Amino acid sequence: MNLRTPIICLTLLTVFNLANAQDDNLNYGHRYQRPQRNAPQQEAPNESPKGFVAVNTGFATVTGNWGFSLSPQYDGTYALSGSLQSISAGIPINGSNFGIALMIGLYDNPFDLNSFVQNVADADPNLNRGYGTLQGGDYATINFMAGLFYTYPVKRFSFDLRVMGGYINCGLPEIAYGAEQDAIPFNIQDTWDIASSSAGGFAYDVGVGARYSFRRSMCLMLNFDWLGASLPFKTLETHQNVDNNGNVTYDYPNLSGTVPVSLFNISLGLGFQFGR
């Protein structure tokens, strides 16, 4: 048998097998491709700026000289430290660290009637007269503020800075006090009643705070704010006098001055966060 024939047959068989294998790869190769691993999904950055709306409560601590300025001898700090409630918001612009700050605040600070009356007594030339307090109240203050907001996120925390200005209105309490002096035959008496009024004007607020995200859209807040204003006011005083003869007279002087509001506020809050 000639060897050429088996060699030719083997060659043709080899070529046929190679061609068939190549055809299989072209037509059915997708069935045997090794499955590729899914590319890892990139997690959303946890340090992206977020806005917030929060309800806060805390302490309104008086600093500086906050009180009635009725006349030089009556000057004094007559507002005592009290409480505050507020609604605040920080709204980033276009997902940046900068944005708009908003706040509505309510403050309640008791009036120090005892110190006020003591200052009046010290200014009275009749040092043997006795003074007493009759009625006092609280400074009730509300403000509406807007300004600039900056936030710096670090993992679950966000550190905020805000500078705001706006309108503030301070409700001044009614104040009543009296004085008496024993004399013969009558007891000389004086009473004063300063009517309640209100003072409004421009106020500023500079604040810093920290937020802690404990859920995707919830946060706890700690805020420190400095609030200041100088507000003009006018009110009416009713003065009653009983002289040695028992005659009663009245006069109604107008009072005016300024209320220098100065508060350092510390508050805690619960807020809703939004953004990326």
Task: Please explain how this structure is put together.
It is built from 2 helices and 12 strands. It is mainly beta and 276 residues long. The chain is elongated. The chain starts with a helix and ends with a strand.
Summarize the topology.
Layout: H1 4-28, E1 50-62, E2 82-92, E3 98-110, H2 113-123, E4 130-135, E5 138-154, E6 157-172, E7 175-182, E8 187-194, E9 197-213, E10 218-242, E11 248-251, E12 254-275
Antiparallel strand pairs: 1-2, 1-12, 2-3, 3-5, 4-7, 5-6, 6-9, 7-8, 8-10, 9-10, 10-11, 10-12
Q: Number of DSSP strands? A: 12
- Tally of individual helices: 2
* Class of secondary structure makeup: mainly beta
Major sheet description: 8 strands, antiparallel, barrel
Portion in helices: 10-25%
Which sequence of strands runs across the widest sheet?
1-2-3-5-6-9-10-12
How much of the sequence is in beta strands? over 45%
Order of helices and strands: HEEEHEEEEEEEEE
Mean pLDDT: 82
State the separation between the terminal residues, measured CA to CA: 84 Å
Please mark out the parts with pLDDT under 50 across 5 or more consecutive residues, or reply none: 1-32, 39-45
Rg value: 39 Å
Please tell me what the overall shape is: elongated
Short description:
The protein is mainly beta and 276 residues long. Helix content is 13%, strand content 58%.
Keywords summarizing the entry:
single chain, 276 residues, mainly beta, elongated, disordered N terminus
